[in-house]
Amino acid sequence: MVSKQRKAELVKEFGRNPKDTGYLPVQIAILTEDIESLKKHFAVNKKDLHSMRGFMAKVNHRKALLNHLKEEDYTLYQSTIKALNIRK
């Protein structure tokens, strides 16, 4: 789970203003941070299938948000995935 302080940093970095948590790049950045922390968890706890279900839900949610952003604003989509180092 992402700490409040880290969320605030992500909102400041990707948002339009400090309270703009609903902005798509902010949501994607927070989900990416959460997904990366869960990857470390699964490296140690390979049999934690219950948490894997939530992890997959987060990955699918991020994928849907990315697809929506891609349709709405392609240049913002490209800059977001580049900043977060998501895709190849």
Automatic annotation (TrEMBL):
Keywords linked to the UniProt accession: Ribonucleoprotein, Ribosomal protein, RNA-binding, rRNA-binding
GO cellular component: cytosolic small ribosomal subunit
Tree of life domain: Bacteria
Gene source species: Metamycoplasma auris 15026
The family this protein is said to belong to: Belongs to the universal ribosomal protein uS15 family.
Function field: One of the primary rRNA binding proteins, it binds directly to 16S rRNA where it helps nucleate assembly of the platform of the 30S subunit by binding and bridging several RNA helices of the 16S rRNA. Forms an intersubunit bridge (bridge B4) with the 23S rRNA of the 50S subunit in the ribosome.
CDD domains: Ribosomal_S15p_S13e
Annotated gene: rpsO
One annotated GO molecular function: structural constituent of ribosome
Name used for this protein in its record: Small ribosomal subunit protein uS15
Gene Ontology biological process: translation
NCBIfam families: S15_bact
